[in-house]
Queue: 3 jobs
Job 1
Amino acid sequence: MLEPTLALQKAIGDTLINTPAVTALVTPDHIRAGSTRPENLPEIIMSGGQTIFLGNASGSQLVARVYLDLHVWAIEDGAETAKHIGFAVCNALKIAPKTQGFSIDEFQLPAIRWMRDPDPALNYVHGVITAEAVVRWKV
């Protein structure tokens, strides 16, 4: 298995690029991991992973709580475009994404925050969707 935040990031990314409602708003090559500064708008950037190891489970498994932020960036039509993208992302992730090499025991999107760029000339809208999962894998 990949490191837990990277494994969750891959599962979420695969789900988003295979969800027509998301890719109708953001092209698949604009859904990526990396720096939170947008290069192409609109864009979804996965970053800010955190892993909290919860211990061992039966059968030589490890368990961890994993957090990952999905940054939604848009400029067209201001907040409306960004919020449409955020809504499509949340709908795509209403159930845990499909995984390879690990299991998701719990999955949720507990928070979405929306903010405008402080520079009015840029007119970016930035949303942060937090994904939280309890993952389990075999050593």
Job 2
Amino acid sequence: MKEYKCHKISEGRAEGEVLFSEDDFCFYLVDPKTGVVIEKNHCLYGKSIAGKILVFPNGKGSSVVQADGMYQLKMTGMEPKAMIVKNPDTTLVASAIITETVLVDRAEDSFYEDTADGTVVAVDATKGIITVKY
């Protein structure tokens, strides 16, 4: 196991497989019944974010679109278990807090270098630690 420091935004703890997005993310463009990304030309198009630790650079979309998208996913149980974002914005932060989704930022650079899709990690936002489980 290896630990990486991060910064808590929305507290809690979650464990699951990492899913990296190179593209900014809009939760409204995810099918709430399946958790599958439906945004054409998105790097995760056709993949499910349900139950994953979603890692992405930025949120995108208006406050209504982001909050509604996250809420719909939460109501159907298709939301990510946790999110690791490089550049949080007010809309993403507020939506994560409202939906009680674990959200962290400021992960150590080595986390991004050492981790790939499918790696199992535990995100403990409250303690500010991401643990990679080998």
Job 3
Amino acid sequence: MDQIIKISPSILSANFSKLGDEILSLENAGADYIHIDVMDGHFVPNITIGPEVIKRLRPVTKKIFDVHLMISPVDKYVKDFAESGADIITFHPEATDNVDKTIKLIKKFNKKVGISLKPKTQVSLIEKYLNEIDLILIMSVEPGFAGQKFMPEILPKIKAIKSIVDKKKLNIDIEIDGGINFQNSKSVKDAGANVIVSGSTIFKENNGNLKKNIELLRTN
């Protein structure tokens, strides 16, 4: 059976002066999730939005807020993001002293748990936690900035994770983020990813036709 592909547009590429409208447009265009990148200028070399902005955006849509925390130490902020309206909270294993504790903390707020792997982070680092999480976010660029070029060398990592997930019969989404466009989306789906994060391609291709771009990423 073909896997169901979900599209999670990254609002990092949206027009921040009308973010609420942009999110509504994404919902109307068929987005499955809304991907929110949170950067602290410490764990990654950039600063984006915090929990207060998410809280203001939450009433705009019922779509799943797929929140990627690129912040350290992460535990200190989990409560704020959970209470602001995040549905999935994804963190990096390098951003915590105790991965198991962070997973339990996110679950305490009844949120789905994601773990993100940077391009050089090994799968073995998170393998023992797979029974406890809902999503694995594989970065196909170094986290920190929008608009970077896709790194095809991460494809074997997707395949390795897909193989483990299938073998253990786990219900885990495999999400890919970083430089995803119409040219490489098929390769990541073929490798096993079922949640596609894209920013620039969704907002800028085909004169910003969100519906068309989301559908192309889904079906290409």
